[in-house]
Design brief:
One of its GO terms (molecular function) is acyltransferase activity. Keywords: Acyltransferase, Amino-acid biosynthesis, Transferase. By secondary structure, this protein is an alpha/beta fold. The chain folds into two domains: 20-155, serine acetyltransferase, domain 1 (Orthogonal Bundle), CATH 1.10.3130; 175-257, Hexapeptide repeat proteins (UDP N-Acetylglucosamine Acyltransferase, domain 1, 3 Solenoid). It is built from seven helices and 14 strands. It has helices at residues 2-15, 22-36, 48-68, 77-105, 112-118, 120-136, 140-154; strands at residues 157-158, 163-164, 169-171, 177-178, 183-184, 189-191, 195-197, 213-214, 219-220, 225-227, 232-233, 238-239, 244-245, 254-255. Strands 1-4-7-10-13 form a five-stranded parallel sheet. Strands 3-6-9-12-14 form a five-stranded parallel sheet. A four-stranded parallel sheet has the order 2-5-8-11, with no helix packed on it. Helix 2 runs antiparallel to helix 3 (48-68) and helix 4 (77-105) packs antiparallel against helix 6. The radius of gyration is 23 Å and the shape is globular. The protein starts with a helix and ends in a 20-residue tail after the last strand.
């Protein structure tokens, strides 16, 4: 029985794809993040030549990582590396807008430095934006590895296939889930525990849109759950805490959960067991 188990494990190794260790990919993207934001870097670059040298060094590391998995890539490692780097300036601009949105949107944020250095929301968004580029370049598993590492570190689960506009603000963040086909506009703010998910669907729907669309300038408060591909939250709307929503709402709407809480007098329950 034991030898049969060992044989099965060995066979799985023979059939396995030779992927690089997730940590190596994650570390390279972390280094890109440090290069873009000196608030995260241990090294301060004194001139533009040092910045350029570090950029080229990271490019070689990224190229080497992609070359190690060339057999399973849709294009040559050089093409994917250059393609990713072509997106990097756009990623940087969007991340700067995210920092600005968090500073403006969170009364507790004292500076951009604090947001970049300490906010899990910014970190999760940063890793998502880089992973999203790899997802679009048809490397979905690698992209998922990156966002899942960020998920394990921040508690914020953003699928790399989601589309998210600029000035995205995550406040607190723990427990947020953003599904694969979610579409989020610009200037959207969401709080902890928000789920943008799918209704229960058949596996055959995997390539279809399954998650909601959130238009521009929407605020979604803690614990709200918004489900379904046809659910659209119109622009400039506010979705209150703990709302369960499976249908669209027009622009400029407010949606609140009406709690069924009654407050009585203690003397009314005296005599009951335990009182």
């Amino acid at each position: 029985m034991k030898s049969e188990f060992i044989n099965k494990v060995f066979l799985s190794y023979k059939l396995a794809k030779p992927n690089p260790q997730p940590e190596s990919i994650y570390e390279i993207l972390n280094e890109y993040l440090k290069l873009m934001f000196p608030e995260l870097s241990e090294k301060q670059y004194g001139n533009i030549e040092e910045v350029e040298a570090r950029y080229k060094e990271l490019k070689l590391q990224l190229l080497s990582t992609f070359q190690s998995m060339q057999r399973y890539l849709p294009k040559k490692a050089e093409v994917i590396t250059n393609g990713f780097l072509d997106y990097l300036p756009g990623i940087y601009d969007k991340l700067k807008s995210d920092v600005e949105a968090i500073v403006v949107g969170d009364p507790a944020a004292t500076s951009a430095y604090e947001v970049i250095k300490a906010y899990p929301g910014f970190y999760a968004i940063a890793m998502y934006r880089m992973a999203n580029v790899l997802f679009k370049m048809s490397i979905p598993v690698l992209a998922r590895i990156i966002t899942e590492f960020a998920h394990s570190k921040t508690g914020i689960d953003i699928h790399p296939g989601a589309e998210i506009g600029s000035h995205f603000c995550i406040d607190h963040g723990t427990g947020i889930v953003i599904g694969e086909t979610s579409i989020i506009g610009s200037h959207v703010k969401i709080y902890q525990g928000v789920t943008l998910g799918a209704l229960s669907v058949n596996k055959s729907m995997a390539s279809k849109k399954r998650h909601p669309t959130i238009e521009d300038h929407v605020v979604i408060y803690a614990g709200a759950t918004i489900l379904g591909a046809d659910t659209i939250i119109g622009h400039h709307s506010i979705v209150g805490g703990n709302v369960w929503l499976t249908k669209s709402v027009p622009p400029f709407s407010t949606v609140y959960h009406k709690a069924q809480i009654e407050i009585g007098k203690l003397e009314d329950i005296k005599g009951l067991p335990g009182y």
